[in-house]
Structure to design on (97 residues):
């Protein structure tokens, strides 16, 4: 159970194929003092279809790599995405995308 959540840098609101996506970097500190950074991602297809995901940096790094592998024709566009810029700035391991 987290004792505190701190909001950090917000990724730019993105509109992707009919869906609004917004990501916020957060830091959780447990009662024992352990810290964990993660992103909260909110996707909204319509007023009644909203999904919240909480993912760590490594999860998002793997997701982004899979997107690049799955959509090679979109690689140039994906490499300029705010998600990648947020991950690079957030310390997700400095992986090569």
């Amino acid at each position: 159970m987290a004792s505190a959540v701190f909001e950090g840098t917000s990724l730019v609101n993105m509109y992707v194929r009919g869906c609004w996506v917004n990501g916020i970097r957060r830091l959780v500190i447990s009662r024992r003092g352990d810290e964990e950074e993660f992103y909260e991602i909110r996707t909204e297809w319509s007023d009644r279809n909203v999904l919240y995901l909480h993912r760590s940096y490594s999860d998002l790094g793997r997701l982004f790599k899979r997107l690049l592998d799955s959509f090679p024709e979109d690689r140039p566009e994906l490499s300029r995405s705010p998600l990648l810029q947020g991950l690079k700035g957030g310390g997700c391991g400095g992986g090569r995308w």
User: Anything to note?
Assistant: The longest helix spans residues 57-70. Residues 13 and 22 are 5 Å apart (CA to CA). Residues 1-10, 91-97 have pLDDT under 50 and may be disordered.
